[in-house]
């Protein structure tokens, strides 16, 4: 089979059009917080936005290598839970999809470790993981098995089954008042870093490729690193977070 040829064309936005970005509200992103007025024409000659790599129509299949997995990306939600239509600019980037193909696995020490995730499985993956690929006019993602957070067999994130060393936590409610009794608004409430563990992955692999169970158990109340993991909101409005066991700092009792 011929090697897969991937091509991508950058989309260039001129500095003149950056002025339209100046009025945007401050927003958090992978790269930190962008504040209004921080973009200056003298600092940016052009802004390059790279689209998904496009596989030429002459290729009929993609075979991921090693511990990589090919995922068909789930379409973005077009409505809120209340039934309100969302414009494309307001639709959140999907973090889920269906496994289409898997690699042959990896080697740890002298042991060959196969990928345990079957094709057809519905998964949730880390928000910024992998490389996006457009194949047969459908968006896919090629990512490492370790970037898969867990399996999701229903439409509700609360049913997530974490993989590897991941821990799935229901986040505690934010404090409504200060210690002095003052009511806090939604914007001033501090993001909680405490929650209850509702599911744990099977564990990590040691140097011989054997699974070492996690020391954290379901039902534990834990304190975790404030900016770790992937945040989710359940259908019941509860907040959840999936993170690595190493990001859990303490067990509370």
From TrEMBL:
Instruction: Show the Gene3D superfamilies listed in the entry.
Output: GroES chaperonin (2.30.33.40)
Q: Does this UniProt record's set of keywords contain Chaperone? A: yes
User: What are the alphabetically sorted keywords of the record?
Assistant: Chaperone
UniProt cross-references to InterPro entries, sorted A to Z: Chaperonin_GroES, Chaperonin_GroES_sf, Chaprnonin_Cpn10_CS, Cpn20, GroES-like_sf
**Regions that span the bilayer:** none
Q: Does the keyword DNA-binding apply?
A: no
**NCBIfam families per UniProt:** PRK00364.2-2
Protein family per UniProt: Belongs to the GroES chaperonin family.
Q: What protein name does the entry list?
A: 20 kDa chaperonin, chloroplastic
């Amino acid at each position: 089979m011929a090697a897969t040829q991937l091509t991508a064309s950058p989309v260039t936005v001129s500095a003149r059009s950056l002025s339209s970005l100046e009025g945007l509200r401050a927003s958090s992103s992978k790269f930190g917080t962008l504040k209004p007025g921080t973009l200056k024409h003298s600092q940016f000659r052009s802004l390059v936005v790279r689209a998904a790599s496009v596989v030429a129509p002459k290729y009929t299949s993609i075979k991921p290598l090693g511990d990589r997995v090919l995922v068909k990306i789930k379409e973005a939600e077009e409505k809120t839970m209340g039934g309100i239509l969302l414009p494309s600019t307001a639709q959140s980037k999907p973090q889920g999809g269906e496994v289409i193909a898997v690699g042959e696995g990896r080697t740890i020490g002298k042991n060959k470790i196969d990928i345990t995730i079957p094709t057809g499985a519905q998964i949730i993956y880390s928000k910024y993981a992998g490389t996006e690929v457009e194949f047969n006019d459908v968006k896919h993602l090629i990512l490492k098995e370790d970037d898969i957070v867990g399996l999701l067999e229903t439409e509700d994130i609360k049913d997530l089954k974490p993989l590897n060393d991941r821990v799935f936590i229901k986040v505690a409610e934010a404090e409504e008042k200060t210690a002095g009794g003052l009511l806090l608004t939604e914007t001033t409430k501090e993001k909680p870093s405490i929650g209850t563990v509702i599911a744990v992955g099977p564990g990590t692999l040691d140097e011989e490729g054997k699974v070492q169970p996690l020391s954290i158990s379901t039902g534990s109340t834990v304190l975790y690193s404030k900016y770790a993991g992937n945040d989710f909101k359940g259908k019941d409005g509860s907040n959840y977070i999936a993170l690595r066991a190493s990001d859990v700092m303490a067990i509370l009792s």
